[in-house]
Here is the input.
Amino acid sequence: MDKKIGFIGCGNMGRAMIGGLVKSGLINAENIIVSDACRESLDKVSNEYHVKTSTDNKEAAKIADILVLAIKPNIYDAVISEIKDSVLDHAIIVVIAAGKTVANIEKTFGKGIKVVRVMPNTPALVGEGMTCICANDKITAGEMDDIIAIFNSFGKTEIVDEKLMDVVTATSGSSPAYVFMLIEAMGDAAVLDGLPRDKAYKIAAQAVLGAAKMVLETGRHPGELKDMVCSPGGTTIEAVASLEEDGFQSAVIKAMRKCVEKSRKMSAS
Here is the structure.
């Protein structure tokens, strides 16, 4: 793709996207510029991915055809105020922060601007990201194809209505943290019963990866796949019964609804 892509911010999510994009080969590293206030973070991303860097956000804004605002929600207004007169007229602004709506970004820029709102997640770094996308009416079909290609280069994408982005935040944006907690707990339990920790995490993580792949590739309901593992009177149903007794599914649902509620509050503020 013959586009220049700018990233303002190179925290965990920004680095995951940059890493996934460079590894995919869709964009040459020389066509990526990253700006951040932290020189240490810039040096790290430069050494690892050989992209251009700057401590001046305006420098990234001046050359980027697609500008990704990979910054915390609380500094969006300040950063946009800094760069709004520097962005190219045709530039596409990509917003990845929870709670930052398309309307909010348009208002903060104070002028007609092309805005794409996305919710990616950190598995982008290993080519297994999940990104949901919506955009304003200034984005053409061809431009949307470019955005989809970028995010498809390090995972999968779905176009969603913006009103569902808060739900997406809980379902994919934040969910790697829940899965990491599950793997950690599985590893701890295995260590408790004598399995070396390095082997415990590897075995647990591969089991989770394989289970997720079965859902995606078979198209079967997760409950059906669960039932396939549960032999009558066997070990698995014993564990499943214990999880249900302790409210496993209810705890997950409650946690995700808390996440959605928080995202909605941020969108309304």
